[in-house]
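Consortium newsletter contribution from the modelling node. Members have asked for a concrete example of what our holo predictions look like. Here is one, prepared for the zinc ion complex that several groups have been discussing at recent meetings.
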Amino acid sequence: MPKITFYNTLTRNDDVFTPMDAEHVKIYACGPTVYDRPHIGNARSAVIYDVLVRFLRHVYPQVTYARNITDVDDKINAAAKERGIAIHDLTREITGYFHADMDALNVARPDIEPRATEHIGEMVGMIKTLIEKGHAYAADGHALFAVASDPHYGCLSRRNRDELIAGARVEVAPYKKDPMDFVLWKPSAADEPGWESPWGRGRPGWHIECSAMSVKYLGDTFDIHGGGADLMFPHHENEIAQTTCATGGDFAKYWVHNGFLTINGEKMSKSLGNFTTVKDLLDKGVKGEVIRLALLSTHYRKPLDWNDKAIEDAEKTLNKFYRAIDGAEIGDVPEVFLNALGNDINVPEAIAQLHSAKPAELRAMGLLLGFFGKTTAEWFKGDVASDDDDIGLKIAERILAKKNKDWAASDRIRDELKAAGIVLEDKPDGTTDWRRA
Ligand code: AMP
Ligand code: ZN
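And here is the predicted structure:
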């Protein structure tokens, strides 16, 4: 097993990764707010955690990955109003786009993808517990977290009180006992989405969503929590406060934060208007795997400045790799490659191994990183992946899983294909044929 260390934002240290249960690793990452089509900054975050999960799956027998969908948010309300459509129609549409765009980048779907609007009961339950334990209070149709009640508050961002107040850009509101207190629940106007609660008709604040859903699916304490560096404060700080105060558990042991994708040194974001969507690039004919490789070309904690050259370089590299793997078997994944990934997910160092590898090993390493979803012929034809390509990729992933004695993954892939009407026939020489049932 490779040595695994992560730079843990909680300790500001490269910590050796020791899962709570070596048989079953649990990871949560903050997912999209579904009000607009994902841009490549959002995609960077999704691709990074996808690689982390693929690596963990290779090393550990079982990994559960949860990533939420924020489908209640003021930006969503505003976007639906502007387009004159119902909120649930907007969130359904954008969730579909998010899935389609991430599928195009070979980002595997998480095991659990909870939607906020389907977990209001869990959030209300957690807020009630916080009030009972003296960590929150109700005021004027709101429920607020009492920051002063949590001696550990600030443990992640390591800000002092003045910095916390400045950083939270807190509104002085008459119902707050302390300007640092943050909203757990707020009232909804008649034309805004709302649910009945002990504090009146309203909707949850954003932070409580991730606390309630991660605890529900992964437990009071779990292994890894990820997200963009912009989420460290206040979002993750508040998640920690809410969860540890409500459950008494430790919440996540390892906090992993990815750096920004930037344009001319500035964070790509919807609000700055400097964004390129994944769909824009796909429509221009840039292949999904090219975007994926370009997004992985810089270490995940560093900023990645996006430009056309990143795309050109990634395309050249993938052309070279695809030429090399034509007809290749799936070999073993070399130790040096796994050690590079174990070294705080150093993907650029891992990719460096691909350049000097023999074809069979190249194919194995590329598959592990979520590449080689097509045959060499398909790649150079530049066709959009056909259904058969997807089946080929799944079969290749299953062969890799079997080599890795990851029987759970191998069975899961077989079952997924079976559910899609594809029957696999393993042959004595180690290859697999398939047919439609
Ligand atoms: P949002 O939909 O804005 O809530 O963002 C979804 C995810 O994408 C979060 O984990 C953000 O931290 C991440 N994200 C947003 N913009 C960028 C960016 N420019 N670079 C890297 N990650 C980003
Ligand atoms: Zn979150």
